[in-house]
Amino acid sequence: MTYIALILSVLVGVFIVFGLKPNLKTVQLLLAFSGAYLLSVTILHLLPEVYAVNSSNIGLFILIGLLFQLILDFFSKGAEHGHIHIHEDGSFPWALFFSLCVHAFMEGIPLGHNQNHDYLLWAIVIHNVPISIILGTFFMKSKISKMNAILFMIFFSLMSPFGSLAGEYIEILTAYKTEITAIIIGIFLHISTIILFETSKDHKFNSLKFIAILIGMVVAYLA
What share of the chain has pLDDT > 90, as a percent? Predict the structure, then answer.
């Protein structure tokens, strides 16, 4: 079920891009909802969980996660939180694609530590949909063929399941599961706060974005 949900979350994004062709405002609202859900799950569930463990280095690993995501942002140009820059020559963005794959793989690792983390699974699933839309939109506007674009998206959809498998079966990842979860918390904090608190154009209050954020927080609380 976990692997199917993770793969489908990306394929849903692919369907939305190639079938529905959503506008930028719709994608931004989906991002706002997913960012709010991600932040709420991190604060309500993941942070209490890692700090319940008797370890003095949890905060350090959270900071490592923040720094790690900053490095990934350098290559992805912020695609994880809604930024995408189309290459004028239509060339394939290997650095961006590789960065997003690493990000997705890392997200999946804590799922392998505990299969009962439904809240984390749905946080990743909800986050994957707008990210897949953004990545798919790039492919549509580039010179990459539709078939190759779909193949790359399928490969991307496998990254989180691979991460979950690694978290379950690779010994060093299971031995340091709390520390790795703390790193993921840092990654989530970086992405979600940028999505939520990035100022709108001319610093105008965006009521639709606020509603999307509020709904995301309420759904995470009730889940």
Answer: 17
